[in-house]
Amino acid sequence: RSTRFYDFKLHTMTVKKLCNTKKIVAVNNMSPGPVVYAQQGDRVIVRVTNESPYNATIHWHGVRQILSCWFDGPSYITQCPIQPGQSFTYEFTLVRQKGTFFWHAHVSWLRATVYGALVVYPKTGVPYPFPYPFEEHIVILGEYWLQDVVKLERQVLASGGGPPPSDAYTINGHPGPNYNCSANDVYEIEVVPGKTYLLRLINAGLNTENFFTIANHKLTIVEADAEYTKPFTTDRVMLGPGQTMIVLVTADQPIAKYSMAMGPYMSAQGIPFQNISAIANFQYLGAVPDRISIPARLPSFNDNLAVKTVMDGLRSLKTSKVPREIDTNLFVTIGINVNKCRSKKPQKNCQGINNGTMAASMNNISFIKPTVSVLEAYYKGNEGFFTDDFPGAPLRFYDFVNGAPNDAPIDTNSMKGTRTKVVEYGSRVQIILQDTGTISTENHPIHLHGYSFYVVGYGTGNYDPQTANFNLVDPPYMNTIGVPVGGWAAIRFVADNPGIWFVAGVWFMHCHIDVHQSWGLGTVLIVKNGNGHLETLPHPPADLPRC
Ligand code: C2O
Question: Using CA atoms, how far apart are residues 417 and 414, in angstroms rounded to an integer?
Answer without folding.
Answer: 10
